[in-house]
Design a protein that fits this description.
This protein is α/β, with parallel strands linked by helices. It has two domains: 234 residues, 3-Layer(aba) Sandwich (Rossmann fold), CATH 3.40.50.300; 235 residues, Rossmann fold, CATH 3.40.50.300. It has 17 helices and 22 strands. Strands 6-7-8-3-9-10 form a six-stranded mixed sheet, sandwiched between helices. Strands 16-19-20-13-21-22 form a six-stranded mixed sheet, with helices on both faces. The chain has a four-stranded antiparallel sheet with strand order 2-1-4-5, covered by helices on one side. α4 packs across α5. The model has no long low-confidence stretch (mean pLDDT 86).
Length: 493
């Protein structure tokens, strides 16, 4: 662990109005798993881009082995065997597993498919992955297996430094365990792993050391064996979080939503009620049908049979527009692809669901747009220098707030949160929880789908558990326990 393979010395990177990295110095050792944590906007992503050559720093030095660079190009980073696995997959769906693993490599004038497949078999075999054929088209693989192909691609390129950005996001518990096996195998071969994750339990399971960043600054590096969750959280947010979940001062009220024998999109026989002033948690393992249920209730997928009642009135939801007219809003799991328009301004995103109410004929009333979007900026505490900023430039937590603003602007009283805090930091989670509590205290009803067990138990008033597209159990607050949820989710009950 004495061999330093990568050093960052005094790295600074400024953007207009923002210092993304402020004199950051850091060292990484050979054969270690070095976790990088911090709130969104802490500078982690910029640091990754500096190391991989995607961003040129304003000052400082990057030392790889014995070579010093004022900045790296992507080509130089590849030559130094630095590989990055980003949150968004960098695969070509139309190509095979073997072609993706060898993508970008040249071995002569003509492509030798047999050689590529043998290479893929060798890499996958070394990683203990036997269930994926090199000939399979990548687009036909589930997200969990695509993640393994991303790792295999890096391994095939003889990575010496492997950066993994939120690698467990698309994985189930069992698949995370498999990924950890591969990470430990790479570590034993001397590969340095830089592991970025918001899931602190993973950090304590896999990392040797952890570095905390905050507001573009280096804060501290700790041995995992000498720190704990509360200390890391305190370092990340600059304050100690006294409680994980806000206390609510309201009782469930009148019935807002009732579902009877809902069938479609892989779900069947779903029946439940949701009341105003209530957060109803939806639990289940990967593939249980949770997101599928959300899409049915939002009119995004076709309902085969069953009935939906909003405020005791039966409704027909054929399109998302029908759901919005009934006061049902969806904050989707994938906010970047489905929740907001990244290339548009914040204020534009905030009002896109209610254009009719702020338009005069064919034209949007810009003054009304500003008044409405500014009200949500204040109400939701969206952190931005200007509402004209593009949504893609916001942190994950603030992007989520924009999606919530867009949904609230459509006068939604029934809100479906699908993985409300996935991919956002500890401090931003607290803000989202606070917002959700304020919503139900103001008479709204929330259906919350989450894979985070603590979030499920901490935020829900009731829990419904799905198993293979059906409700396997329902728990009231006094019955909550992780064991009970997992029993229902596994189909044991």
């Amino acid at each position: 662990m004495d061999d330093i393979v990568l050093s960052i010395k005094g790295i600074t990177k400024r953007y207009p109005g923002v210092t993304a990295l402020d004199d950051v110095s850091l060292e990484f050792h050979k054969g270690e798993v070095h976790a990088l944590v911090g709130e969104n906007g802490a500078g982690k992503s910029t640091l990754i881009k500096v190391i991989s050559g995607a961003v040129t720093p304003d000052s400082g030095e990057i030392i790889v082995g014995t070579k010093g660079y004022t900045s790296l190009t992507p080509h130089q980073a590849k030559e130094e065997h630095i590989e990055v696995i980003y949150q968004e997959f960098n695969l070509v769906d139309s190509l095979s597993v073997a072609e993706n693993i060898s993508f970008g490599e040249r071995s002569g004038t003509f492509v030798n498919f047999s050689q590529m497949e043998n290479k893929a078999l060798e890499v996958l075999g070394m990683m203990g992955i036997t269930q994926i054929s090199p000939k399979t088209q990548v687009g036909k693989l589930p997200s969990s297996q695509k993640q393994l192909i991303e790792i295999a691609k890096s391994v095939s390129r003889d990575a010496k430094i492997l950066i993994m950005d939120e690698p467990s996001a698309p994985l189930s518990v069992a698949e995370v365990d498999k990924m950890f096996e591969i990470v430990r195998m790479l570590k034993n071969k001397g590969v340095t792993i830089i592991y970025i994750s918001h899931r602190l339990d993973e950090i304590f399971s896999i990392a040797d050391r952890v570095t905390v960043m905050r507001d573009g600054k280096y804060i501290a590096t700790k041995l995992i064996s000498e720190t704990g969750t509360q200390e890391l959280i305190a370092l990340m947010v600059g304050r100690e979080l006294k409680e994980s979940y806000p206390v609510r001062n309201c009782e469930p009220g009148t019935e807002a939503l009732k579902v009877e024998e809902l069938c479609g999109n892989g779900d069947s026989g779903i029946s439940f009620t949701l009341h105003r002033g209530e957060i109803l948690g939806i639990a289940g393992l990967v593939g249980a049908g949770r997101t599928e249920l959300a899409r049915l209730l939002f009119g995004a997928d076709k309902l085969d049979s069953g009935s939906i009642f909003v405020n005791n009135r039966k409704v027909e939801l054929h399109l998302p527009g029908d759901a919005l007219c009934c006061g049902i809003g969806l904050i989707p799991e994938d906010r970047k692809q489905q929740g907001c328009f990244l290339e548009k301004a914040i204020d534009w995103n905030c009002v896109i669901s209610c254009l009719k109410s702020i338009s005069r004929g064919l034209f949007v009333d810009e003054e009304q747009q500003k008044i409405l979007s500014d009200s949500y900026r204040e109400k939701l505490e969206i952190k931005t220098p200007t509402m004209r900023q593009l949504v893609k430039n916001l942190s994950g937590g603030n992007q989520q707030k924009v999606v919530i603003a867009k949904t609230l602007a459509a006068n939604s009283d029934i809100l479906i949160f699908d993985e409300p805090t996935r991919g956002i930091d500890v401090g931003a989670k607290q803000e989202i929880y606070k917002l959700m509590c304020e919503m139900v205290e103001n008479g709204k009803a929330i259906l919350m789908i989450t894979s985070d067990m603590q979030e499920l138990l901490g935020m829900s008033d009731r829990i419904i558990v799905l198993y293979k597209g059906q409700i396997s159990g329902e728990l009231r607050k006094e019955e909550f326990s992780q064991e009970k949820v997992l029993e229902y989710a596994s189909g044991i009950q």
